[in-house]
């Protein structure tokens, strides 16, 4: 906060939610919406039970299974009995405590960070938490949203609050129009490449500038989703007419006069003109090209029209050592053009890129083409409703005719907890958010790209510059 | 959850000379399929342990309760399974130049002490434990001091977190002292 009392969005939302503040203690922050999934919540519910505690506000938690649900043959139980147990445990906990639960057979089921916004649960000015680091996605609506651990999930269930230290603030300012073929995914990959994997640690980010102002909600969600990949727990876009248009009429959005009051309130959730940030990062959007990661952190990416970097020419020894280790794991030689790297698998999905706009972009490339021989390509929509919408628009037919597998909603091969797993050594073009070692299966090699770039890799059998298609 | 109080500890240290060790490396997602908090230690660094020369495979470090690592340790997922796996394996202290935010919070809740020291000091500790696996480090949470041989360094820790670790306090118990404020906040918001 500056001397004038001017505040950033993050500071405004924070102040609004402080239940208790005392010197030497973290603030006690009220949580408006808690999202729960089957993998990080069972231990929290069990600990409550053991301690004889109840859920303070069951009306402020929403549960959905997503991480390990099967994405085909949904009428059957999950093949893995422990996954099935986690899904059933979430169902039972939700029933027992009276928590809204979108079950696996419900059309509204999907990835937790996709369905929160889709249902209108995610709203500007809220504090939103979930036992998942990609909770930052909800920041696209001007909410302060961040991931928490299971002990904190338990804390939220018991108290509807969290003990938190106020984060530092960081402005990420990007201006200019995106070139054809360049997407919000490329913008965030460029930001991460320049900021580094820990450039945002300790901060909450506000995305500012014309590039984000002109972005769709889907695009903003992609950007905010990957905020955690440069170390910042939360990333927000100021709410505007684009936000309100997206929310109006959604099932859990305010209605009638409540809607008008909400919009008036939401319009004040913006940074004051003379507020200051602890740090600022700037980027010119017109210089960004489609990007592909070559290593094992999301910061290790280059433009599709360049080559695999050479560690020998890296000035910092520890950076070079990490790059060598990454290239060894990825089985890549330095200086090889990115477009000469073949792929075995293509995954289009995840909380980063599984929304209708992502599927439209991928289908536009797939239309009239066919998945290259020897390549396996999956499309996993972010929710049952997105799946239905894509089928209505004919996108599903485009994918199926092009040789893609068309699946049910879930996290799927983003983290390979269900049976959508890379074989050791397989190379995957993936629209997900993490290219960590073994992320998509032990020994699997992940290259992060946009949906259009993933589709281009699928039909070519190797990475290709979507601008030339 | 009630955790074990921590005052001071002297132990060998495992030198993990890598930066950006992510939570997927600490515990891959396929091992998160349990509904309990325990039993994850056997899967700690599962894929790295398949490399024969990986430091955890070196018997000389058996029984170590301190891990020394490179910067940005614990980046990635919010899975508390990562600190659960470290704790279950026997680790009570992690020393690194920096940690990822969510991971560091989770460690406090599991009772693991995260110590931030300058990059140069961490690399000194890494090389000592690499050269002499028997060399011991003392971590004193009461004085916020690290001692190794004749050297000592002080470290900063959030005072509230330090108190919790020293007393093994349950976070929910602490918050419920302010139950009336939560109720007051809720009734104010409902109007």
Explain the layout of strands and helices.
The complex is a heterodimer of chains A (469) and B (191).
Chain A: H1 9-17, E1 18-20, E2 27-30, E3 33-36, H2 42-51, E4 61-63, H3 81-97, E5 100-101, H4 112-118, E6 127-130, E7 144-147, H5 150-159, E8 161-164, E9 168-175, H6 184-195, E10 203-208, H7 210-213, H8 217-225, E11 234-236, H9 241-247, H10 256-266, E12 279-284, E13 291-293, E14 301-303, H11 317-330, E15 345-348, H12 356-366, E16 376-379, H13 384-392, H14 395-401, E17 405-406, E18 427-430, E19 445-448, H15 451-460
Parallel strand pairs in A: 3-4, 3-6, 4-5, 6-7, 9-10, 9-12, 10-11, 15-16, 15-18, 16-17, 18-19
Antiparallel strand pairs in A: 1-2, 2-8, 13-14
Chain B: E1 8-16, H1 23-26, E2 66-69, H2 81-89, E3 93-96, H3 101-110, E4 113-116, H4 119-131, E5 136-140, E6 145-148, E7 151-154, H5 159-167, H6 171-176, H7 179-190
Parallel strand pairs in B: 1-2, 2-3, 3-4
Antiparallel strand pairs in B: 1-5, 5-6, 6-7
Helix pairs in contact in B: 2-3
Task: Give the distance, in angstroms, between the N- and C-terminal Cα atoms of chain B.
Answer: 34 Å
Give the largest interface.
A-B, 65 and 50 residues
Overall geometry of chain A: globular
Radius of gyration of chain B: 18 Å
- What is the SS-derived class of chain B? alpha/beta
> Which architecture of chain B per CATH?
Alpha-Beta Barrel
Low-confidence stretches of chain B: none
What's the story with the biggest beta sheet of chain A?
5 strands, parallel
What is the overall pLDDT average of chain B? Answer: 95
Helix content of chain B: 25-40%
Strand order of the largest sheet of chain A: 5-4-3-6-7
Give the assembly state of these chains. Answer: heterodimer
Q: How many DSSP helices of chain A?
A: 15
The strand line-up of the biggest sheet of chain B is 4-3-2-1-5-6-7
Q: How many beta-strand elements of chain B?
A: 7
- How many strand segments of chain A? 19
Whole-number tally of structural domains of chain B: 1
| Contiguous helical run count of chain B | 7
Helicity range of chain A? 25-40%
